[in-house]
Design brief:
This protein has 12 helices and 18 strands. By secondary structure, it is α+β, with helices and mostly antiparallel strands. It has a 6-stranded mixed beta sheet, sandwiched between helices. A 3-stranded antiparallel beta sheet has the order 7-8-11, with helices on one face. The protein has a 3-stranded antiparallel beta sheet with strand order 14-17-18. Helix 5 crosses helix 6, helix 8 crosses helix 9 and helix 10 packs antiparallel against helix 11.
Length: 407
């Protein structure tokens, strides 16, 4: 029997979960203010006059205002020189003021008024009469088109060279939150493994994961939850029907939740019972592929080099080639932060160099339709000299959570 899998139940494991939300503090006002300074310095470096942030993760990351997007224009305008200002429907202005982390005038537009005309007026007030305006690259097309239409003499570009560039380079505090979130989710993974019994359904496990993340002190329940048993583990994003656990099944669980706005994301694959030679072979191959990806992660190396390293191990063992199944059917990693998938992406052909502060997953998957699949997912932070794991990878097919090592 695989060590750490089975022998308990969901009630016992849920009762043992402790709230660890306050183990690290959230991002404070000082760091948000520093982000604004960094953004303005970056804008001046790129020759940008102003930056529009829609109600997206970019807005929350930079200013601390978590509003979300709707059919109405809500967001913030940051000139390259000058104070932050906000735009919102007039009936939302007072509520927005209570939600602000960073101060700034909140400009309101009535329901029968044109919000894009007000945006143009805000630019004029900020002394941005021309030049290049960066529009939030997560904004909806209708909003971007509306803003362009009111200021045809301006040039417009996507915000990525400012917003993504800065968000990809995590501060020590951001890394600390991610490390804590990942560790908490990994502990919940181990609890779910202990609670498995024959006859348990994937829905039962998903319900436990949701309750456990809330009990542990995450901002909310899981942002996503993939639970698979047996042959469906071969499908990276799951199947639309529940499964019931049986002896000998491969188990794949991929789950994460937000802590102080930053999302965890851990996948573990293991056998309920005793691994067969075939299951052992593929698990160990996946483990070697993940280790190769980690070894390729160093500052200055191409993001695509992580994918090349992982895929090289898999193809070298006779799978693929490329993205063909049986084999590794998707990229081997993605950046992570306030969004579960964000830049940089570890995909073949991505020549973007890794930089200190980059965080992201290394998650090779070997999918064998008709048999099973295995994914091992942990995250790294790129350092000045290489990379460091945010969580320790699975130890072995016989002891995935390293319980013998801990003892």
């Amino acid at each position: 029997m695989t060590i750490g899998v089975g022998g308990s139940d969901f009630g016992t494991e849920l009762a043992a979960i402790r709230n660890r939300r306050d183990a690290v503090p959230p991002i404070g006002v000082a760091e948000h203010a520093e982000r604004v300074e960094r953004a303005q310095a970056r804008m001046r470096e790129l020759g940008l006059s102003a930056l529009w942030l829609d109600g997206t993760t970019n807005l929350a990351w930079l200013t601390g205002l978590k509003h979300g997007q709707s059919e109405r224009a809500v967001g913030a305008l940051l000139p390259a020189n000058g104070p932050l200002a906000y735009l919102a429907p007039a009936f939302e202005v007072e509520r927005i003021r209570t939600m602000l982390t960073l101060p700034g005038e909140v400009h309101g537009w009535e329901e029968d008024e044109d919000p894009y005309a007000l945006f143009a007026e805000m630019l004029r007030e900020a002394d941005v009469s021309g030049g290049t305006v960066a529009l939030d690259d997560m904004a909806r097309v209708f909003l971007a088109e509306g803003m362009r239409g009111k200021l045809p003499n301006h040039r417009y570009v996507a915000s990525g060279p400012v917003t993504s560039f800065l968000r990809e380079r995590k501060t020590e505090q951001e890394v600390a939150i991610l490390r804590q979130a990942m560790g908490m989710t990994l502990e919940i993974h181990a609890a779910a493994a202990r609670a498995l019994q024959p006859g348990v359904t994937t829905s039962d496990v998903a319900d436990f994961l949701a309750a456990a993340h809330r009990r542990a002190g995450f901002d909310a329940g899981p942002a996503f939850s993939i639970v698979l048993f047996g042959e469906p583990t071969a499908y990276p994003h799951g199947v639309p029907y529940p499964q019931t656990l049986a002896e000998g099944d491969m188990v794949l669980i991929d789950v994460g939740a937000p802590l102080h706005g930053y999302v965890s994301d851990i996948t573990r694959s293991y056998v309920f019972g005793t691994p067969t030679p075939r299951q052992r072979e593929i698990w160990e191959l996946t483990k070697r592929a993940q280790a190769a990806g980690f070894a390729a992660a160093r500052p200055g190396a191409a993001c695509g080099g992580i994918d090349d390293a992982c895929r090289g191990v898999v193809v070298g063992a006779g799978f693929g080639p490329g993205y063909k199944v049986p084999g590794l059917p998707h990229r081997t990693g993605h950046g992570i932060g306030m969004d579960v998938h964000e830049a940089p992406y570890f995909v073949k052909g991505n020549a973007q160099p890794l930089a200190p502060g980059n965080t992201g997953s290394i998650e090779p998957t070997i999918a064998i339709y008709g048999e099973f699949g295995i994914r091992l997912e942990d995250h790294i932070v790129v350092t000045e000299s290489g990379a460091a794991w945010l969580t320790q990878p699975a130890q072995s097919v016989d002891d995935p959570f390293g319980l013998e090592r801990a003892a």
